Amino acid sequence: MKEHILFLTGKLAEKQLRNILEKMQPDFTYTVHQLGLKVAALMTCDMIARRLTDTFGADRIIIPGRCRGDVDELSAKLGLAIARGPEELKDLPQYFGKAAQQHDLSRYQVKIFAEIVDAPHVSVEEVVKRAQYYKKNGADVIDIGCLPSTDFPHMEDIIRTLKQLGFMVSIDSLEANDLLRGGKAGADYMLSLHESTLWIADEVAATPIIIPESHEDLASLDRAIKRLQAKNRAFIVDPILDPVHFGFTQSIVRYHEVRKNHPNIEMMMGVGNITELTHADTAGMNTLLLGICSELNINSILATEVSKHASRSIKEADLARRIMFAAKEHDTLPKHINPGLMALHEPSPFPYTLTEIEELAEHITDPSFRIQTSSDGVHIFNRDGLQSATDPFDLFPQLHVEQDGSHAFYLGVELARAQIAWQLGKRFTQDQALTWGCATEQSEESIDLHSFKPAGTTLQKPSTTTK
Fold first, then answer.
1. What are 27-75's pLDDT values in tens digits?
2. pLDDT tier for residue 98 given thresholds of 50, 70 and 90
3. 444, 426 in Cβ contact below 8 A?
4. Is 444 helix (H, G, I), strand (E, B) or coil?
5. Do 150 and 277 reside in the same domain of the chain?
6. How do strand 111-116 and strand 300-303 relate by DSSP bridges?
7. Are strands 370-374 and 300-303 parallel, antiparallel or unpaired?
8. Which string of DSSP letters, residue by residue, matches 339-399?
9. How many CB atoms lie within 10 A of CB 458?
10. How many domains does the chain have?
């Protein structure tokens, strides 16, 4: 027997909800019921409890996405499962599609080595601070980067302190003495060794990361692999990723060749040579590189956050590895799994066309402004009519809020957000900060613009007419 779902909505959104459900041709039966209020987003759980006298034989209830109140308490009172729907009605088909396959992003396969590149010049306290930041953003191993011909008297103190605090640690140098000291101090990994320095692996317990003797000498890498395998020693191989125009494509080929020749060895990719040395947003780079790692079963990356433009690289890599793991596990494309890597654009930025917004505006009978975007620009409307523009400055003379400073300020902020969203192709929702995924540390909920609204001028979000 098919599930029967009750959809609760407001007067303005009822027709649109019915049309969307009809086009969906869902595998469930449904009833659409409006509770006698115009704007669905003004609905609360308490209001539902008071007004809903018939559940129409429903097995569960879907309420507007921005309905406020305690859903669990309402569910217990009505004796039915209740869930909030999407914030925009146009997302309802996607909402039900996703419900069929929830992706678990708690799992991943790739370890992130986060490098502190200038460790000889950094105090123990500062290293700990950076390590904690990196770990919070997803790092599994803190890499202590040495500098050529630079004294590092507090190396041991750094490693022992990090180990005491529960961190996994790697020591990163091409100088034998640095690697020996780091290994004896308790480092879990050491990079990088090559054929001529493999003897260091016999002196300490740290797992070696090995590289070619000279840059593209895969024969030396093969010999080093055989020597370590003969000793039944754990190791990780890094064929070295090169910057764009300095061997990048050939280095990808090199990784593929090493994997083909050694199907079961552990491998590492140093992604910093791309993220640090390319002036472009790093989220896409990390996503693509982690996709290559997923295909080639490369289970470790070395990441850095030296350049300011790469300051979210570890956080991005963390999410990218989880998305790639989920996509690979379900044998699907890395799409519609999590939006956190889409900082600038979104797959569905404009849920409503200008025609739909114009139709909606005709039904507004109160003075509160609604702001929405479409592919045509930014639109603001209330009972006095609809104004459209691509530049918010063109709208100000039509709003007549010159005598109300706080209201004008609020509208200015919201219209600026709407313009940015329209320009980039992002989803704009009135009264909510734009979402930037991994690109920002700031919570979208950390700024409360309601504090700038004068009493009696509460503005409705776009969703108030779409659910």
1. 899 999 999 888 787 789 999 999 999 999 999 999 998 888 999 999 9
2. low
3. no
4. coil
5. yes
6. parallel
7. unpaired
8. STT-SS--SS---S-HHHHHHHHTT--SS--EEEEETTEEEEEETTEEEEESSGGGTHHHH
9. 11
10. 3
Question: For the whole model, what pTM was predicted?
Answer: 0.82
Q: Maximum distance among all alpha carbons in the chain?
A: 82
Whether 133 and 34 share a structural domain = no
- Report pLDDT for 446: 38
DSSP state, 44?
A: B
- Tokens linked to 131: 């390590």
Residue-wise pLDDT for 306-345, tens only, equals: 999 999 999 999 999 999 999 999 898 998 889 899 999 9
| φ/ψ of residue 441, rounded to 5 | -90, -20
User: Are both 305 and 361 inside the same structural domain?
Assistant: no
Structural domain containing residue 429 = 354-465
Within its chain, how far is the Cα of 357 from the centroid? 30
For residue 458, is pLDDT > 60? no
Per-residue pLDDT at 85 exceeds 50 = yes
Helix axes 11-24, 92-99, angle to 10 degrees: 50
Segment 362-388 shows an average pLDDT of 93
Helices (H) and strands (E) counted in the chain, each on its own, are: 15, 15
Read off the CATH number of the domain in which 208 is found.
3.20.20.20
- Quick one: DSSP state of residue 88? S
Answer yes or no: is 375 within a domain: yes
